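Researcher: Structure for this, please.
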Amino acid sequence: MLKWKILLLCLIISFFPSRIWAAESSLIIQLPWDHQFQFAGFYQALWQGYYKEAGIKVEIRGGINDEGNVIDAIEAIASGDADIAPLDGLSLLIAQDKGADIVALHPILQRTPWVFHSLEDQPLNSLSDLASAPIATSPDSILIYKLLLKYGKIKPDQRLIISEPPTIDSLVNGTAKIVSDYADSTTWMAKQMGLQLNTLYAEDYQIDFYSDVITVNRNRLRADPVLIEKFLQATLLGWEYALNNKEKTIEEIVGILPRKLQAVDLTGLNRNLAKRYHELTRYPQVPLGTSDPERWERMHAALKEIGVVRGNLDINRQILVPVSTDGIYSEWLLITLLFSSLAAVTWLAGWPGQQRSGYLIPLVSVIFTLIIIFLAVALYREHEMENQKQETLAKASMVRVQMEESINSTVFLIKGLITHIRLNPNLTQSEFELIAQQLIDDHPMIRNIAAAPNFIIRMFYPIEGNQQIMGLDYRDLPEQFPSVLKAKESGQVVLAGPLHLVQGDIGLIGRLPIYIKSKLGEQEFWGIVSAVMNVDAFYRSAGLYDSSLGLEFAIRGKDGLGDKGEVFFGEKTLFENDQSVLMNVMIPGGFWQIAARPTGGWSTSTGPILFIYLLGFISAFLAIVSYLMRRTHESQRRESEQHVSYLESTQKL
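Model: Predicted structure, token format:
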């Protein structure tokens, strides 16, 4: 009986990692600013008990010290005074380049939060306007400022970069004509003061960098990677809760957390920040914490262009895309199952008491072996499927990134045309052709460009073969007018299609509204500029036709309707298959959704499965051999005892 208990205890203990028995671990989070909705995910992970459930004791430290100065969060985690900090993506890369031993984990903001503001009388419609007036920036936003001017091929005038705080007060008192702003909080403050601002969004000019990146001290990560993974998962749950319960979260932030920097209306400030943060996370269209190595490489290359980093980016060292520990435990569990079953089955088959139970013990041994084989094969198939999904996800991410880059670069080029029209709303066809020709030469994916004052196409390039377009009124085109109207009403870029063009084929159309100042100084609608992209060239450049990827693709979400839109590329069945990898492509005015799977479907290599079967066969074979040997031994022992007994009785007679 004791032997049974020892064996059972060993098997049970082997199925639980020693980390489960460890004491509760602790982590210190250093915030880079005062308590506000910007860090809501950390707060709610603590308040909702997600950290506690993960066995982690968390301390959250505010970013302002008792003297009212900002604490250097990078220095705090690099020195080991704290373990975790949410950092701006560009500042993080610069710190790593300077030797800070920190690792980027999950980015929370998928869109760039930086914007620039001026008062109503200071123009801010283009990069030229941004470069022509005194500007107040922060250490992080100055990087965005320099990158924007670099992209616009404008040399920054250092005399215009002034040492003033980037606040609404600097605009009001005239010490700065332009200020940088994080997540549009200055816009909210201006409304409270009855002021109108002009705003230039960095993300409108191909700035699509990560921000609020959860960053960890490397030594802490090395010491306990599973703890950090648990922390990340708990934090993402906290962010999900905060974004789905914004008002409750705001109430708790204002009521619970001590703030060093006071504001007139903390609730209003946090409410504005919560709305903007939800937009910047792209949640739920993009899963919280999504991290793309290629985007990190673009960020690093951009910093190298302006000379603030010198080394090369080592993705494997500087950027960590955490992998769920489920796969690790599955492999470990598979090995444990197989070898535990071998030991247990062999032991059972040779159990001394088997003679009293006849064939019961061998039968139990064989059944146990079959169960173990079934579980082992199932675990292997699950693990293999997960590996294939990870590989498919990585390849599909490359396609998604290329799509977004193609669309963003097209929009960026067209913005140059819009600037010309704003400065010269009475542009002629010949002037329009000169500009449009240059744009198309630089970007062959653009087929044609049209300008429609008051919704009527008056300018077009190229004219040849498209004469029927001139004079068309978008209001007479029921398939196209909804996207035109959406662009006008939103004031933002809208990508329509793919849809049937008047010329007879299919295209993607980027709609950009133009607003100009009237004689009374008010913004009035001028019209729409539309750029048609060659759909086939777009698909090809994105890699959808690349057979070397070994993937099948389908895309849905016509007109940016996401998972509610119709399928316009590939087979609809890919979206009906639960195993397909899904991801979102962010486009102006909405998003598309890609479904991907390996060409020919998912498959599992048979080699390891055959090995599992072989191991199971060996286990069963050993059990039978052990049983037969034991049975033979017992039979021989009984015969020997009978013979000895017979001899003894004979001698007595």
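Researcher: Any notable elements?
Model: The chain has 23 helices and 19 strands. The two ends are 42 Å apart (CA to CA).
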